[in-house]
Amino acid sequence: MEVFRAVMLTGSVNGATELLHVSQPAVSKLLAHAARQAGLVLFERVKGRLVPTPEAQQLYAEIEHLWRGVERVRDVTRGLADPQTGTLQLAVSASLASHLVPRAVALLYQRFPRLKTSVEVLVAPIMVNALLDHSAHLGVGMLPNAHPNLVAVRSYACGLACAMREDHPLASKKTITPADLRGQRVIGSPAGTPYGQSLLRAYGKAAAAMGLDIEVRSATTACWFAQAGAGVAVVDRAAVAGRTFQGLAVRPFRSGESLDVRIIRNRYRPLSVVHKAFCEAFDRVWTAGVGTGAAR
Predict the structure, then answer these.
(1) Which domain holds residue 44?
(2) Is the Cβ–Cβ distance between 126 and 147 less than 8 Å?
(3) Would the pTM of this model clear 0.85, i.e. be above it?
(4) Residue 296 is assigned to a structural domain of this protein
(5) What is the pLDDT of residues 207-244, one digit of tens each?
Protein backbone atom coordinates (compact mmCIF):
# COMPACT_ATOMS: atom_id res chain seq x y z
CA MET A 1 0.00 0.00 0.00
CA GLU A 2 2.78 2.43 0.87
CA VAL A 3 4.59 1.91 -2.44
CA PHE A 4 1.38 2.12 -4.49
CA ARG A 5 0.37 5.28 -2.65
CA ALA A 6 3.80 6.84 -3.23
CA VAL A 7 3.61 6.20 -6.99
CA MET A 8 0.11 7.68 -7.12
CA LEU A 9 1.21 10.75 -5.19
CA THR A 10 4.36 11.44 -7.20
CA GLY A 11 3.22 10.12 -10.60
CA SER A 12 6.36 8.05 -11.22
CA VAL A 13 8.56 5.27 -9.90
CA ASN A 14 11.46 7.71 -9.55
CA GLY A 15 9.32 10.03 -7.47
CA ALA A 16 8.26 7.14 -5.24
CA THR A 17 11.90 6.10 -4.66
CA GLU A 18 12.76 9.62 -3.50
CA LEU A 19 9.70 9.79 -1.24
CA LEU A 20 10.34 6.38 0.36
CA HIS A 21 14.15 6.52 0.29
CA VAL A 22 14.44 3.09 -1.38
CA SER A 23 15.89 1.89 -4.68
CA GLN A 24 14.03 2.05 -7.99
CA PRO A 25 14.22 -1.73 -8.58
CA ALA A 26 12.68 -2.33 -5.15
CA VAL A 27 9.74 -0.04 -5.95
CA SER A 28 9.18 -1.64 -9.37
CA LYS A 29 9.35 -5.15 -7.91
CA LEU A 30 6.88 -4.39 -5.10
CA LEU A 31 4.51 -2.64 -7.49
CA ALA A 32 4.51 -5.61 -9.90
CA HIS A 33 3.98 -8.02 -7.00
CA ALA A 34 1.02 -5.97 -5.73
CA ALA A 35 -0.57 -5.99 -9.21
CA ARG A 36 -0.18 -9.78 -9.50
CA GLN A 37 -1.63 -10.36 -6.05
CA ALA A 38 -4.61 -8.13 -6.79
CA GLY A 39 -5.12 -9.51 -10.30
CA LEU A 40 -5.33 -5.98 -11.62
CA VAL A 41 -3.57 -3.76 -14.10
CA LEU A 42 -2.72 -0.73 -11.98
CA PHE A 43 -0.70 1.38 -14.42
CA GLU A 44 -0.27 1.74 -18.17
CA ARG A 45 2.61 3.45 -19.93
CA VAL A 46 1.52 6.32 -22.15
CA LYS A 47 4.36 8.09 -23.94
CA GLY A 48 6.83 6.83 -21.35
CA ARG A 49 4.76 7.92 -18.37
CA LEU A 50 2.88 5.77 -15.83
CA VAL A 51 -0.84 6.45 -16.01
CA PRO A 52 -3.09 4.90 -13.33
CA THR A 53 -6.01 2.81 -14.60
CA PRO A 54 -9.57 3.51 -13.39
CA GLU A 55 -9.21 0.50 -11.08
CA ALA A 56 -6.04 2.05 -9.60
CA GLN A 57 -7.86 5.33 -9.03
CA GLN A 58 -10.65 3.55 -7.17
CA LEU A 59 -8.15 1.53 -5.15
CA TYR A 60 -6.23 4.68 -4.30
CA ALA A 61 -9.36 6.33 -2.87
CA GLU A 62 -9.84 3.37 -0.51
CA ILE A 63 -6.19 3.29 0.49
CA GLU A 64 -6.16 7.03 1.24
CA HIS A 65 -9.13 6.56 3.57
CA LEU A 66 -7.34 3.71 5.33
CA TRP A 67 -4.03 5.58 5.38
CA ARG A 68 -5.48 8.40 7.44
CA GLY A 69 -6.23 5.78 10.11
CA VAL A 70 -2.66 4.45 9.87
CA GLU A 71 -1.29 7.96 10.33
CA ARG A 72 -3.52 8.45 13.39
CA VAL A 73 -2.13 5.24 14.87
CA ARG A 74 1.41 6.51 14.25
CA ASP A 75 0.58 9.85 15.87
CA VAL A 76 -0.94 8.13 18.91
CA THR A 77 2.09 5.84 19.20
CA ARG A 78 4.48 8.80 19.10
CA GLY A 79 2.32 10.65 21.61
CA LEU A 80 2.30 7.74 24.03
CA ALA A 81 6.08 7.38 23.78
CA ASP A 82 6.73 11.11 24.25
CA PRO A 83 3.48 12.71 25.44
CA GLN A 84 2.99 16.47 25.50
CA THR A 85 0.15 16.15 27.96
CA GLY A 86 -1.22 13.62 30.44
CA THR A 87 -2.73 13.24 33.89
CA LEU A 88 -1.10 12.64 37.26
CA GLN A 89 -3.13 11.95 40.40
CA LEU A 90 -1.02 11.87 43.55
CA ALA A 91 -1.79 10.89 47.13
CA VAL A 92 0.90 12.36 49.38
CA SER A 93 1.89 12.22 53.05
CA ALA A 94 2.02 15.62 54.76
CA SER A 95 5.80 15.47 55.30
CA LEU A 96 6.37 15.21 51.57
CA ALA A 97 3.79 17.79 50.50
CA SER A 98 5.61 20.91 51.66
CA HIS A 99 8.78 20.71 49.57
CA LEU A 100 9.76 17.45 47.86
CA VAL A 101 6.61 16.62 45.88
CA PRO A 102 6.02 20.22 44.71
CA ARG A 103 9.63 20.41 43.45
CA ALA A 104 9.25 17.07 41.65
CA VAL A 105 6.03 18.21 39.97
CA ALA A 106 7.70 21.49 38.95
CA LEU A 107 10.48 19.49 37.28
CA LEU A 108 7.87 17.36 35.54
CA TYR A 109 6.23 20.44 34.02
CA GLN A 110 9.47 21.28 32.25
CA ARG A 111 8.93 18.15 30.17
CA PHE A 112 5.12 18.04 30.13
CA PRO A 113 3.94 21.69 30.13
CA ARG A 114 0.28 20.73 29.60
CA LEU A 115 0.15 18.11 32.33
CA LYS A 116 -3.00 17.91 34.49
CA THR A 117 -2.04 17.24 38.11
CA SER A 118 -4.21 16.48 41.13
CA VAL A 119 -2.65 16.21 44.60
CA GLU A 120 -4.30 15.12 47.85
CA VAL A 121 -2.57 15.10 51.23
CA LEU A 122 -3.73 11.90 52.93
CA VAL A 123 -2.93 9.80 55.96
CA ALA A 124 -1.59 6.32 55.22
CA PRO A 125 -4.84 4.23 55.46
CA ILE A 126 -6.76 6.62 53.19
CA MET A 127 -3.83 6.74 50.78
CA VAL A 128 -3.99 2.96 50.49
CA ASN A 129 -7.71 3.14 49.68
CA ALA A 130 -7.09 5.81 47.03
CA LEU A 131 -4.58 3.56 45.29
CA LEU A 132 -6.82 0.52 45.52
CA ASP A 133 -9.89 2.26 44.08
CA HIS A 134 -7.80 3.92 41.31
CA SER A 135 -8.54 7.47 42.44
CA ALA A 136 -4.76 8.00 42.70
CA HIS A 137 -2.08 6.87 40.25
CA LEU A 138 0.77 7.06 42.77
CA GLY A 139 1.14 7.36 46.50
CA VAL A 140 4.16 9.12 47.97
CA GLY A 141 4.02 8.05 51.57
CA MET A 142 5.73 8.08 54.92
CA LEU A 143 5.22 4.64 56.52
CA PRO A 144 2.35 3.61 54.18
CA ASN A 145 0.25 0.64 55.20
CA ALA A 146 1.22 -2.64 53.56
CA HIS A 147 -1.29 -4.26 51.18
CA PRO A 148 -0.77 -7.22 48.81
CA ASN A 149 -2.20 -5.25 45.87
CA LEU A 150 0.28 -2.39 46.29
CA VAL A 151 3.93 -2.41 45.23
CA ALA A 152 6.77 0.04 45.85
CA VAL A 153 8.18 1.77 42.76
CA ARG A 154 10.93 3.55 44.73
CA SER A 155 11.95 3.30 48.39
CA TYR A 156 14.07 5.61 50.54
CA ALA A 157 15.40 5.51 54.09
CA CYS A 158 14.73 8.90 55.69
CA GLY A 159 16.72 10.03 58.70
CA LEU A 160 15.52 12.31 61.51
CA ALA A 161 16.13 15.96 62.34
CA CYS A 162 15.49 18.37 65.19
CA ALA A 163 13.80 21.70 64.50
CA MET A 164 13.78 24.59 66.98
CA ARG A 165 13.70 28.37 67.02
CA GLU A 166 16.96 29.99 66.01
CA ASP A 167 17.32 31.49 69.50
CA HIS A 168 17.01 28.09 71.19
CA PRO A 169 20.14 26.98 73.14
CA LEU A 170 20.44 23.77 71.07
CA ALA A 171 20.54 25.77 67.81
CA SER A 172 24.27 26.37 68.43
CA LYS A 173 24.98 22.65 67.97
CA LYS A 174 25.75 21.14 64.56
CA THR A 175 24.20 17.80 65.46
CA ILE A 176 21.68 16.86 68.15
CA THR A 177 21.93 13.60 70.10
CA PRO A 178 19.28 11.96 72.30
CA ALA A 179 21.29 13.03 75.35
CA ASP A 180 21.01 16.69 74.26
CA LEU A 181 17.22 16.46 74.58
CA ARG A 182 17.29 15.57 78.27
CA GLY A 183 15.29 18.17 80.14
CA GLN A 184 13.88 19.64 76.91
CA ARG A 185 10.21 19.80 75.92
CA VAL A 186 10.05 17.58 72.86
CA ILE A 187 7.31 17.79 70.22
CA GLY A 188 6.70 14.37 68.75
CA SER A 189 4.10 11.91 67.51
CA PRO A 190 1.72 9.73 69.58
CA ALA A 191 3.44 6.59 70.86
CA GLY A 192 0.66 4.42 69.48
CA THR A 193 1.51 5.32 65.87
CA PRO A 194 4.28 3.75 63.75
CA TYR A 195 5.88 7.22 63.48
CA GLY A 196 5.78 7.65 67.25
CA GLN A 197 7.27 4.19 67.79
CA SER A 198 10.18 5.09 65.52
CA LEU A 199 10.81 8.27 67.51
CA LEU A 200 10.82 6.37 70.83
CA ARG A 201 13.39 3.94 69.44
CA ALA A 202 15.49 6.91 68.32
CA TYR A 203 15.36 8.51 71.80
CA GLY A 204 16.43 5.29 73.51
CA LYS A 205 17.09 5.53 77.25
CA ALA A 206 17.17 9.34 77.07
CA ALA A 207 13.38 9.36 76.58
CA ALA A 208 12.84 8.99 80.33
CA ALA A 209 14.45 12.40 80.96
CA MET A 210 12.69 14.26 78.12
CA GLY A 211 9.53 16.27 78.40
CA LEU A 212 7.39 14.36 75.90
CA ASP A 213 4.51 16.72 76.56
CA ILE A 214 3.31 17.66 73.07
CA GLU A 215 2.04 15.05 70.63
CA VAL A 216 0.90 15.95 67.11
CA ARG A 217 -0.17 13.86 64.13
CA SER A 218 2.19 15.28 61.51
CA ALA A 219 5.74 16.53 61.25
CA THR A 220 4.46 19.74 59.65
CA THR A 221 2.34 20.49 62.72
CA ALA A 222 5.32 19.70 64.97
CA CYS A 223 7.36 22.33 63.12
CA TRP A 224 4.60 24.92 63.54
CA PHE A 225 4.71 24.34 67.30
CA ALA A 226 8.50 24.64 67.25
CA GLN A 227 8.16 27.94 65.34
CA ALA A 228 5.96 29.20 68.16
CA GLY A 229 8.66 28.36 70.70
CA ALA A 230 6.78 25.45 72.28
CA GLY A 231 9.80 23.14 72.22
CA VAL A 232 12.06 21.04 69.99
CA ALA A 233 10.38 19.12 67.18
CA VAL A 234 11.86 15.75 66.25
CA VAL A 235 10.73 15.01 62.70
CA ASP A 236 11.71 13.21 59.53
CA ARG A 237 14.23 15.04 57.36
CA ALA A 238 11.82 15.10 54.41
CA ALA A 239 9.49 17.41 56.34
CA VAL A 240 12.19 20.07 56.80
CA ALA A 241 13.90 19.77 53.43
CA GLY A 242 14.47 23.03 51.59
CA ARG A 243 14.11 25.34 54.59
CA THR A 244 10.34 25.34 54.27
CA PHE A 245 9.85 26.78 57.75
CA GLN A 246 11.20 30.28 58.32
CA GLY A 247 12.83 31.08 61.64
CA LEU A 248 13.62 27.44 62.44
CA ALA A 249 17.07 26.02 63.00
CA VAL A 250 17.19 22.47 61.63
CA ARG A 251 19.89 20.09 62.84
CA PRO A 252 20.51 16.41 62.06
CA PHE A 253 19.39 14.07 64.86
CA ARG A 254 22.06 11.47 65.46
CA SER A 255 20.28 8.13 65.56
CA GLY A 256 20.33 4.79 63.81
CA GLU A 257 16.58 5.03 63.33
CA SER A 258 15.11 5.88 59.93
CA LEU A 259 11.65 6.05 58.39
CA ASP A 260 10.56 4.45 55.14
CA VAL A 261 9.46 6.72 52.32
CA ARG A 262 7.97 4.96 49.33
CA ILE A 263 6.44 5.77 45.98
CA ILE A 264 3.75 3.12 45.64
CA ARG A 265 1.27 2.08 42.98
CA ASN A 266 -1.51 -0.39 42.45
CA ARG A 267 -0.01 -3.73 41.40
CA TYR A 268 -2.59 -4.03 38.62
CA ARG A 269 -2.12 -0.52 37.23
CA PRO A 270 1.19 -0.26 35.31
CA LEU A 271 2.96 3.08 35.17
CA SER A 272 2.56 5.37 32.18
CA VAL A 273 5.40 7.42 30.69
CA VAL A 274 4.25 10.43 32.75
CA HIS A 275 4.12 8.42 35.98
CA LYS A 276 7.62 7.03 35.41
CA ALA A 277 8.87 10.54 34.71
CA PHE A 278 7.46 11.73 38.04
CA CYS A 279 9.34 8.95 39.86
CA GLU A 280 12.56 10.04 38.16
CA ALA A 281 11.90 13.69 39.06
CA PHE A 282 11.18 12.82 42.68
CA ASP A 283 14.40 10.83 42.83
CA ARG A 284 16.37 13.89 41.66
CA VAL A 285 14.66 16.15 44.19
CA TRP A 286 15.19 13.64 47.00
CA THR A 287 18.90 13.39 46.25
CA ALA A 288 19.28 17.17 46.21
CA GLY A 289 16.95 17.97 49.10
CA VAL A 290 17.40 15.15 51.61
CA GLY A 291 20.51 13.33 50.46
CA THR A 292 20.16 10.39 52.84
CA GLY A 293 18.78 6.98 52.06
CA ALA A 294 19.36 6.39 48.37
CA ALA A 295 16.56 4.91 46.28
CA ARG A 296 16.24 1.17 46.35
Answers:
(1) 2-81
(2) no
(3) no
(4) no
(5) 999 999 999 988 999 999 999 999 999 999 999 998 77
